[in-house]
Amino acid sequence: xADTNVEGETAFSHISRGAFVTLLGKSIGIPLxxxxxxxxxxxxGAEIFGRLRFGLTVMDFAxxxxxxxxxxxxxxxxxxxxxxxxxxxxxxLSLLVGGSGSILVGGCMAFFSRDIALLFxxxxxxxxxxxxxxxxxxxxxxxxxxxxxxxxWNYSSFKTALQDVVFxxxxxxLFGIVAYFGFRQAGLARSMFLIYLLVSLLAVxxxxxxxxxxxxxxxEIFRAIxxxxxxxxxxxxxxxxxxxxxxxxYLMNNADTLMIGYFIDESxxxxxxxxxxxALFVQMILGASGSLFMPNMARLYENxxxxxxRYVYRKVTKWLVILSLPVMIGNLGFPVILLNVxxxxxxxxxxxxxxxxxxxFSHVLFGLNGTIxxxxxxxxxxxxxxxxxxxxxxxxNTLLIPRYxxxxxxxxxxxxxxxxxxxxxAILYKELGxxxxxGDFVAVTLCSLIVMIGIGRFANLGITSLAGAIAYGVVAYxxxxxxxxxxxxxxxxxxLDLINN
Length: 501
Prior knowledge:
Elements: H1 2-43, H2 46-67, H3 70-80, H4 84-111, H5 113-120, H6 127-152, H7 157-181, H8 184-211, H9 218-224, H10 232-263, H11 266-279, H12 284-289, H13 293-302, H14 306-333, H15 335-339, H16 350-366, H17 369-375, H18 379-404, H19 406-432, H20 439-458, H21 466-486, H22 492-500
Helix pairs in contact: 1-2, 1-7, 1-14, 2-4, 2-6, 2-10, 2-11, 3-4, 3-6, 3-10, 3-13, 4-6, 5-6, 6-8, 7-8, 10-11, 10-18, 10-19, 11-16, 13-17, 14-16, 14-20, 14-21, 16-19, 18-19, 20-21
């Protein structure tokens, strides 16, 4: 057990450091992201915001077929490659495969932009976003693959700086310019193209900064690239199932948005997207911890360290639950106050926000199960689980949205998330004997959450402002921390170690 703790703590240290850097970036990026959303909703309205979100949804789905799971593949193969030359080769081959596909798919997306818009809406107003985001697709692919490579080298700072800061700050600046000169939605679409061009160039520069110390000159870096086709087969063979997995996962995550647009209208998509963007804060810590989780778990698995994997997974999941609770207090306790930040019209999405937050919290309770599957070489199992849940999700959306509207889509998504986590959890228990977190700890946490939400919403505390909601959340969370300290679920030393990592 001592060896397990030593090696497990080493991996946990890498993961927690990566999470800290990522969270530091998100502490800047999240306000910037909210700022860009508020900028669009306030200056352009929910309808144009819905069209922008629709275009991004189509683009993100198209990019899955361009990247073909290579972001996960490049993380795995760079992390286990023995030499820097091999690592660089995997990166370049991933760019070539993904870049070629993105030119083809992006061109089709741009050419058929009007038809894509008319497929979901009664007019082609969204086509301008689909057009320019299709042209942006090759740059978005380069950006995504390059950042995945930097994570494989255990650098989380580049992704944090580019994705959470540069990208979102560029949105605010360019969206503000568009609004100032009155360019409306065509200007918004063109600004997205410029943003993806900028960040793709910076992402490639980031890779260069990482690898240059291993070579005497830039020309030597280019000479090290031999385009070894023998590496393409294992890379693509591993990554290809993840293409289908990610496409299924993306469809499941966006089926509600697409079907709300189909059954209702763009304004409903805009309102729902505002609620969903707040609900995603629940998994902010989860996403941050996942930045270096996969490559570290892959290394442990390749070395036959199942005990260390169980140790790290449970420790990471426990802290995910603890650190994610403040967002749940806010989203469930004061949803109207938070939603009104986007505008008064969004306040009616309070129930939708609550339902989505519960569903996303299931990801936190079960831990990074989708991330660890490729690390233990189970990409096909991940695909099968996602396919089952996608079918359930589509059926539920088809039944619930026409009858219950937006809340029907949120309910379908939440049920699907719980089902997926149960399926993933069953596989990990069978393969590794992995239990994400102690049951009694979960019971205490959920009971505390229910009490905190109940007092906040029904005790007539007179909280009507964002500042008041934050103050209540701080006090309630401090009490929760005191409870789990008293019950020995965490210790002061463990908390200090987490900070020192």
